[in-house]
């Protein structure tokens, strides 16, 4: 896996990432750090990536378990260390899973498997952050 980051000097503190799969992602800094707030901060993209990684796992695990899942949202809330390096110290993931006749045990198992075995992003972030999860199931 690879990624190339290019600074856009005319924009202040904006950067463009080109991923190994050929996709572009723009990031920017806060105005008090020279940015113009035109795109997500790099740490926000890291948090979003973790959410996407675990949501992907949960949906895939539920589908493979023949659960009729129709939606999956994850709300992440994070705390960072007050001094540099300002690593994530706590991350909470709240899953809202929608579907028809979803088994509570299947949803809880899918989240646990992602958290403990499959989600590279949250497992890696778990080296510095306490990661907790919760969930709710809604009808389709």
Automatic annotation (TrEMBL):
Family matches, as InterPro entries: KH_dom-like_a/b, OsmC/Ohr_fam, OsmC/Ohrsf
Domain of life of the organism encoding this protein: Bacteria
Matches recorded under Pfam families: OsmC
Residues forming coiled coils: none
Protein name: Peroxiredoxin
Organism: Pseudaquabacterium pictum
């Amino acid at each position: 896996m690879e990624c190339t980051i290019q600074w856009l000097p005319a924009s202040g503190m904006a950067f463009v990432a080109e991923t190994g799969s050929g996709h572009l992602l723009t990031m920017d800094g806060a105005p008090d750090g020279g940015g113009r707030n035109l795109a997500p901060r790099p740490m926000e993209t890291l948090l979003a990536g973790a959410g996407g990684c675990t949501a992907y796992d949960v949906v895939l695990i539920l589908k493979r378990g023949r659960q009729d899942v129709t939606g999956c949202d994850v709300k992440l809330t994070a705390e960072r260390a007050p001094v540099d390096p300002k690593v994530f110290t706590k991350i909470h993931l709240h899953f809202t899973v929608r579907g028809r006749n979803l088994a509570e045990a299947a949803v809880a198992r899918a989240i646990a498997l992602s958290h403990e075995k499959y989600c590279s992003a949250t497992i890696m972030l778990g080296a510095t952050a306490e990661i907790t999860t919760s969930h709710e199931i809604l009808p389709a």
